[in-house]
Amino acid sequence: QVQLVESGGGLVHAGGSLRLSCVASGTFFSVYHMAWYRQCPGKEREMVASIAVDGTTSYGDSVKGRFTISRDNAKTTLYLQMNSLQPEDTAVYYCNAEIIILPNKNDYWGQGTQVTVAS
Hints:
The protein has strands at about 1-5, 10-15, 20-25, 30-40, 45-50, 55-60, 65-70, 75-80, 90-100, 105-110, 115-119. It is mainly β. Strands 2, 4, 5, 6, 9, 10 and 11 form a seven-stranded mixed β-sheet that branches. About 30% of the residues are buried.
Protein backbone atom coordinates (compact mmCIF):
# COMPACT_ATOMS: atom_id res chain seq x y z
CA GLN A 1 0.00 0.00 0.00
CA VAL A 2 2.92 2.34 0.72
CA GLN A 3 6.19 2.32 -1.15
CA LEU A 4 9.36 4.39 -0.89
CA VAL A 5 11.50 4.37 -4.00
CA GLU A 6 14.97 5.91 -4.07
CA SER A 7 16.75 7.00 -7.20
CA GLY A 8 19.76 9.02 -8.25
CA GLY A 9 22.57 6.82 -7.05
CA GLY A 10 25.49 5.89 -9.23
CA LEU A 11 29.20 6.15 -9.74
CA VAL A 12 30.95 9.49 -9.33
CA HIS A 13 34.54 10.57 -8.91
CA ALA A 14 35.77 12.29 -5.78
CA GLY A 15 34.68 15.89 -5.69
CA GLY A 16 31.59 15.24 -7.74
CA SER A 17 27.92 15.59 -6.90
CA LEU A 18 24.78 13.49 -6.92
CA ARG A 19 21.19 14.17 -6.00
CA LEU A 20 19.12 11.39 -4.49
CA SER A 21 15.34 11.33 -4.57
CA CYS A 22 12.83 9.30 -2.60
CA VAL A 23 9.19 9.21 -3.62
CA ALA A 24 6.50 8.00 -1.26
CA SER A 25 3.57 6.52 -3.13
CA GLY A 26 0.38 4.74 -2.20
CA THR A 27 -2.60 5.63 -0.10
CA PHE A 28 -1.87 7.46 3.13
CA PHE A 29 -2.90 10.50 5.09
CA SER A 30 0.44 12.25 5.30
CA VAL A 31 4.21 11.86 5.53
CA TYR A 32 5.80 13.09 8.72
CA HIS A 33 9.49 12.90 9.58
CA MET A 34 11.80 11.77 6.78
CA ALA A 35 15.46 10.87 6.77
CA TRP A 36 18.34 9.47 4.77
CA TYR A 37 20.44 6.68 6.20
CA ARG A 38 23.44 4.95 4.72
CA GLN A 39 25.23 1.67 5.15
CA CYS A 40 28.92 1.93 4.39
CA PRO A 41 30.84 -1.26 3.66
CA GLY A 42 31.72 -2.98 6.91
CA LYS A 43 30.00 -0.36 9.06
CA GLU A 44 26.71 0.05 10.89
CA ARG A 45 23.84 1.95 9.40
CA GLU A 46 24.02 5.64 10.22
CA MET A 47 21.70 8.57 9.83
CA VAL A 48 22.94 10.99 7.23
CA ALA A 49 20.30 13.69 7.42
CA SER A 50 16.74 14.15 8.57
CA ILE A 51 14.00 16.66 8.01
CA ALA A 52 10.77 17.34 9.85
CA VAL A 53 7.48 18.41 8.34
CA ASP A 54 8.22 22.04 9.16
CA GLY A 55 11.57 21.86 7.38
CA THR A 56 13.79 21.56 10.44
CA THR A 57 16.91 19.62 9.45
CA SER A 58 19.72 17.77 11.10
CA TYR A 59 22.90 16.25 9.67
CA GLY A 60 25.51 13.77 10.60
CA ASP A 61 28.83 15.38 11.42
CA SER A 62 30.58 13.73 8.49
CA VAL A 63 28.31 15.34 5.90
CA LYS A 64 27.69 18.79 7.34
CA GLY A 65 28.46 21.48 4.82
CA ARG A 66 28.44 19.02 1.93
CA PHE A 67 24.97 17.46 1.91
CA THR A 68 21.60 19.18 1.90
CA ILE A 69 18.31 17.47 2.68
CA SER A 70 15.02 18.88 1.45
CA ARG A 71 11.47 17.78 0.87
CA ASP A 72 8.51 18.59 -1.33
CA ASN A 73 5.48 17.82 0.75
CA ALA A 74 3.04 18.26 -2.13
CA LYS A 75 4.92 15.59 -4.07
CA THR A 76 5.72 13.52 -0.97
CA THR A 77 9.30 13.46 -2.17
CA LEU A 78 12.56 13.62 -0.25
CA TYR A 79 15.86 14.81 -1.70
CA LEU A 80 19.49 14.64 -0.74
CA GLN A 81 21.91 16.89 -2.59
CA MET A 82 25.40 15.51 -2.13
CA ASN A 83 28.35 17.70 -3.04
CA SER A 84 32.09 17.27 -2.67
CA LEU A 85 31.66 13.52 -2.51
CA GLN A 86 34.53 11.49 -1.13
CA PRO A 87 35.32 7.77 -1.27
CA GLU A 88 34.20 7.38 2.34
CA ASP A 89 30.69 8.40 1.23
CA THR A 90 30.42 5.15 -0.70
CA ALA A 91 27.40 3.32 0.69
CA VAL A 92 23.89 2.15 0.07
CA TYR A 93 21.62 5.06 0.87
CA TYR A 94 18.17 4.37 2.29
CA CYS A 95 15.11 6.56 2.57
CA ASN A 96 13.11 6.38 5.79
CA ALA A 97 9.74 7.97 6.43
CA GLU A 98 7.10 8.11 9.10
CA ILE A 99 3.82 7.73 7.26
CA ILE A 100 0.34 8.19 8.65
CA ILE A 101 -2.33 5.77 7.54
CA LEU A 102 -5.12 6.78 9.86
CA PRO A 103 -5.18 6.14 12.71
CA ASN A 104 -1.66 4.67 12.74
CA LYS A 105 1.85 5.99 12.26
CA ASN A 106 4.40 3.60 10.80
CA ASP A 107 8.02 3.63 9.66
CA TYR A 108 8.78 2.71 6.08
CA TRP A 109 12.04 2.07 4.28
CA GLY A 110 13.05 2.22 0.67
CA GLN A 111 15.04 -0.46 -1.08
CA GLY A 112 18.22 1.59 -1.14
CA THR A 113 20.32 3.11 -3.88
CA GLN A 114 24.03 2.54 -4.33
CA VAL A 115 26.41 5.48 -4.29
CA THR A 116 29.99 4.74 -5.25
CA VAL A 117 32.66 7.42 -5.11
CA ALA A 118 35.91 6.64 -6.86
CA SER A 119 39.14 8.31 -5.84
